[in-house]
From TrEMBL:
Its EC number is 3.5.1.44. GO terms for molecular function: protein-glutamine glutaminase activity. Probably deamidates glutamine residues to glutamate on methyl-accepting chemotaxis receptors (MCPs), playing an important role in chemotaxis. This is Probable chemoreceptor glutamine deamidase CheD. It catalyses: L-glutaminyl-[protein] + H2O = L-glutamyl-[protein] + NH4(+). CDD domains: CheD. It comes from Halapricum desulfuricans. Belongs to the CheD family. GO terms for biological process: chemotaxis. It is an enzyme of class 3 (hydrolase). Keywords: Chemotaxis, Hydrolase.
Length: 172
């Protein structure tokens, strides 16, 4: 994880830096960089923004809980990934009391269970529970269904652009 806070040159001021966040990864931006991730099926993209600093961050979580964490990658799990992202934003000057969250993903694209409680739904529930535990409100979401998504977090404004396989693009 890197915190992007460098000055932009006059050539790039009109177009912010774009940073790809991979599966089970997170990143933080203090310079208005655009954080992107793709491949959100049952995974969840959690975007946090504190406009008072401003600082933004994005984590791409795969599974609900790190209870049986074997690989030590905290960003892989909804509970520890959200916690890690909050800590990283605070380290970059953010204040959790000023943070808001936007989330996308949590599809049950390959859900064969009869209970309807697939991994996507459990990921959404765990992300919301963890954010609630930290007192951070979810102010926008595009979750569930049976389609993939990719997202783009505009670090300067906190806008989250969600592109869906079958719903086009929308801004949260």
């Amino acid at each position: 994880m890197k915190v992007y806070d460098g000055q932009t040159s006059s050539e790039t001021e009109s177009k912010p830096e774009q940073i790809k966040v991979g599966i089970a990864e997170y990143d933080v931006s203090k310079n208005g960089a655009v954080l992107t991730t793709s491949g959100l099926g049952s995974c969840i993209g959690v975007a946090l923004h504190d406009e008072t600093v401003p600082v933004s961050g994005l984590v791409h979580v795969m599974l609900p809980s790190a209870d049986d964490m074997e690989d030590g990658n905290r960003a892989k799990f909804a509970d520890t990934g959200v916690e890690t992202l909050i800590e990283a934003l605070e380290d970059a000057g953010g204040n959790r009391n000023n943070m808001v969250a936007k989330i996308a993903g949590g599809s049950d694209m390959l859900d064969f269970s009869e209970s309807g409680s697939g991994i996507g739904q459990r990921n959404v529930e765990q992300v919301k529970e963890t954010l609630n535990d930290y007192g951070i409100s979810v102010v926008g979401e595009d979750v569930g269904g049976n389609h993939g998504r990719s997202i783009k977090l505009k670090g300067a404004s906190g806008e989250l652009v969600v592109k869906s396989a079958n719903k086009g693009s929308r801004t949260l």
